[in-house]
Amino acid sequence: MKAITANPETIREVFSKRYIIPDFQRPYSWDKETCEKLWDDITDFYGTGVTNDDKYFLGNIVINPSVRNTASAWEVVDGQQRLTTLLLLIKALYSNAGTVRALEKCLRIEDPLTSDLTDEIRVNSCVISDDREILQAVILDRAEDDMPESNIISNYRFFCGKIDEWRRYNGQASDKLNSFILALLDNVVLLPIHCGSEDDALTIFETINNRGMSLSDADIFKAKLYHYTPANEQEQFIKDWNQLEDHDELFRILMHILRAKAGDASKETSMRSYFTKKDSHLSAYKEIMESLKTINAIQYGWYGSGKIDALWHIMNTYPNYYWQFPFFVFLHKYGAYDKTAEEFTLENKYINKFEELMDATVQYFFIKGVVYNSVNAVRDTVYKVCVDIEKEKDYLQDYKANIYKEDIKDFKDLLYTDRLKRYQRGMVLLCAYLNPKQDKGKFAEFISGKTDIEHILPRKWNNYDGWTDTLWSEKLNTIGNLVPLSKKLNIAARNEFFDKKKEFYKQSEIADVLDLIKVKEWTPEALDKKQKEKTKRLLNYFGIK
Questions:
Q1: pLDDT value at position 211?
Q2: Less packed terminus of the chain by CB within 10 Å, N or C?
Q3: What is the mean pLDDT of residues 253-266?
């Protein structure tokens, strides 16, 4: 990290420089309520009777030297909202005062030879939006009545109204307004944190910022992709980008697809580092956008089969997301994105192979999860599986080679207990899915809705049907006592006696629930019988004797 300096500067000093709002920033978003707080803070400070030594601190900004502009300029990583709003306030004051050149110099850049003020404004937005044109129009008095409404225009008008109101209250004399202007320029201060590079500035910003929303990795990637896209394709790029959902998640998946293509099974780096290093993957903007569309279509619209949909939802309960990378590597390799229909397709000849991969992934992850309860137990194997899928090697063997005899023994023992921890929900759903009487399509539909895990023996203990406090405590959270139930039915059945619960169970489409209707009483013996039945079903699926 290069040298970082921070010295308080007055508004006059701050706005003696040229600033660039990088394109990865979000559009200007401060509303009237935020502007009113800023206005009240400054007028309250002035109202206390300001002396030369009095200072009012408005906060910090994080900046670094611009590499996008040949002229001397600072890029704003944190503080664009505050700087833009102050520029609008200064413009509103100038519009009211008219002849105060000190204000005008805060708005526009001076020509270095003639000292004449140019039409280049102090804060130049490169954000991928209309901010640049609207801000310039306001500052340079070029705003038209038919311009689209925006926060920039409405906030400028807000400040104009507040200044008129303030002058009426304090008298119309220009010396009063001039005194206020001088207090704003010379007694209100910001703390610019000058960083040596954009990476340093982003690091500092993420460390100190506790207000607003931090820049996401996807914000950075969007700007770089936009730069690589030819000018005549940039409008389409924005449309395509806006149709994608959860951009950070899409890039995380894409990183593992690209790693697999490169045969890289090493420890992963951060996404930002991976995508923005010198030999950036983002330069291949067309391929990147096509891959993002494919991943998005898989994630949010693809239905391969009842089994695929059910197992995918079951894995969504898993405490970490590494299980999904082998799925996406396979689908990205063998599937296709239909641009016309805007949907993902996978030929039937690959469906069975994908379902086989899903079974192996589910088995591996739940065995390792239940036994080790740690992401470290699965990561390295996942990287190798992804590479071998791409290289068309025996990727299923990667899973088998990393499940040890001790793992199988411990997993088998834990299935009989209430110590499934964070994996309990997934195991209960998997067990219900594996019921031979269960319609897989109906289960997939059920699991995509609001589901709860029902305790047959209620969590509120009652002394009945042979249960003691000790037995209740031991058996309450075992698989034999748990079934998936729709949220609505679970609320209705909660804490009822078993006979009453069965009235609600009849309305379920889940075979594990319907099987309970035939059970006369929910005794310790009935639960133990159900525990053995479900455990055997799970062990068969996991290939454990």
A1: 45
A2: C
A3: 96
- Cα separation values, 21 from 165, 171, 477, Å: 32, 38, 55
Query: What is the band of 78 on the pLDDT scale with cuts at 50, 70, 90?
Result: confident
pTM confidence score: 0.74
Q: How far apart are CA 399 and CA 15, in angstroms?
A: 60
Question: CB neighbours of 269 closer than 8 A, spacing ≥ 6?
Answer: none
- Beta-carbon contacts of 520 under 8 Å, excluding residues fewer than 6 positions away, are 526
Whole-angstrom Cα distance, residue 250 to residue 210? 26
- Residue 121 in 3-state DSSP? strand
75: Cα separation from own chain's centroid: 25
Structure tokens at 443: 């289960």
Of 313-317, 337-341, 346-350, minimum mean pLDDT range: 337-341
Structure tokens at 450: 């609001």
Q: What percent of the chain has pLDDT over 90?
A: 64
Which three-class secondary structure state does DSSP give residue 358?
A: helix
* Cα three-residue angle 471-474-480, rounded to 5 degrees: 95
- 10 Å Cβ neighbour count for 219? 17
Alpha-helical (H) ranges within 53-211 are 80-97, 101-107, 131-139, 151-170, 174-187, 198-208
Cα-Cα-Cα-Cα torsion 39, 44, 46, 49, nearest 10 degrees, comes to 180
CA-to-CA distance for 158 and 35, rounded, in angstroms? 8
SS3 320: coil
Instruction: Spell out the residues 6+ positions from residue 188 whose beta carbon is closer than 8 angstroms to its own.
Output: 10, 11, 42, 45, 55, 56, 58
State the DSSP string of 379-433. Answer: HHHHHHHHHHHHTTS-HHHHHHHT--HHHHHHHHHHHTSS--GGGHHHHHHHHHH
**Residue of higher predicted confidence among 460 and 54:** 54
Question: What is the average pLDDT across 454-481?
Answer: 86
Phi, psi of 419 (to 5 degrees): -110, 45
- Complete DSSP assignment for 275-287: HHSTT-GGGSHHH
Alpha-carbon dihedral 14, 15, 21, 25, rounded to 10 degrees: 50
Give the residue-averaged pLDDT of 34-62: 89
In 3D space, the residue among 511, 472, 512, 513 whose CA is nearest the CA of residue 489 turns out to be 513
Each residue of 411-422: pLDDT tens digit?
999 999 999 999
pLDDT of the residue at 210: 45
CA 291/CA 253 separation, integer angstroms: 10
